[in-house]
Amino acid sequence: MPQDRRDQLLEHLLRRADNAKPAPEALDQALLSRIVTGLVFAQRPINAAGSAVTERYSLGPRGAFILSLIDKGIEYPKDLALVLRIGRSLVTAELVRLTDAGLIAAQTGDDRRRSLLRLTPLGSKVTAEFRTRVTDLVQTRLAAFSRDQVELFATMLLQMQEDPAA
């Protein structure tokens, strides 16, 4: 089942279990509004941090993230679609851009119907640059918080991204 495979892939990426307990009391509307606003707009500074890489290589909106996923072992187009929760045609369009930019190469896997994706040396360099930029942003934004607070924040974010239907 695709959802099971997606869960396996995410677990592979995250490599840790989440045991957070739900909050015992209801949250007020003002706090909920701040949380939703933060979740909705948090992607903007992350995208801005990676924009130099994205613009330099004419990547699509997910290009740099796809490079990072490939680098972390998500190496098949179908798996990328599952992790990103997008259609395979969108993944294909992103992969064409990455290939044209010389950042990835596809190899025929054991199953000839599946292409195994690999970063090129340039792709590895670009991925490292992207990660450095995003890491610097996140570390700067979270510098005022303790390690325990950041761990809790990460746990909460992971819990928020879970599929409510599951």
How does the SSE layout of this entry go?
Blueprint: H1 2-14, H2 29-41, H3 43-56, H4 63-71, H5 77-84, H6 88-100, E1 104-108, E2 115-119, H7 121-142, H8 147-160
Antiparallel strand pairs: 1-2
Helix pairs in contact: 3-7, 4-7, 5-6
Protein name: Winged helix-turn-helix transcriptional regulator
Organism: Novosphingobium piscinae
Helix content: 55-70%
What distance separates the N and C termini? Answer: 13 Å
Relative strand content? 5-15%
Order of H and E elements: HHHHHHEEHH
**Helix count, DSSP H or I runs of 4 or more residues:** 8
Radius of gyration: 18 Å
Q: How would a crystallographer describe the biggest sheet?
A: 2 strands, antiparallel
By helix and strand content, what is the structural category?
mainly alpha
Strand order of the largest sheet: 1-2
Which consecutive residue ranges, at least 5 long each, have pLDDT under 50? 16-20
Mean pLDDT: 87
Assigned CATH class: Mainly Alpha
| Number of individual domains | 1
Shape: globular
Q: Tell me the CATH topology.
A: Arc Repressor Mutant, subunit A
The CATH architecture would be Orthogonal Bundle
Write out the CATH superfamily name: Winged helix-like DNA-binding domain superfamily/Winged helix DNA-binding domain
* Beta strands, count: 2
Protein name: Winged helix-turn-helix transcriptional regulator
